[in-house]
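URGENT: need a sanity check before tomorrow's submission.

F., can you look over the Sulfotransferase domain-containing protein record below? I want to be sure the sequence and structure line up before it goes out.
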Amino acid sequence: MQETAWLVQNDFDFDKANSIPLTERSPFVEIEGLQDGICKSFKKSDDLPSPRLLKSHLPASFLPKEIWQKRSKIIYKLLVTLEVRRNNLLKRS
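Structure tokens as predicted:
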């Protein structure tokens, strides 16, 4: 998902995409953990060129309020694979 979003945002520049690791183009904000209630990765995101692509598994309440105030675009990804797999295992039992 993040690769597709990055390519759309950057006019499908595959050469540029191949020259920069995906972890730098679209970093996880929670990887470095929380420090003093503020995720360090959010501070690093200020250094990324705008518009930025960030990804997170954090609940919406943990994200900075600026995300909602500045009308950022959010792509939600619903992952139901584990639930389907669990249901299939329960049916076999």
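My own read: The chain has six helices and two strands. The chain has one domain: 1-70. If you see anything odd, call me.
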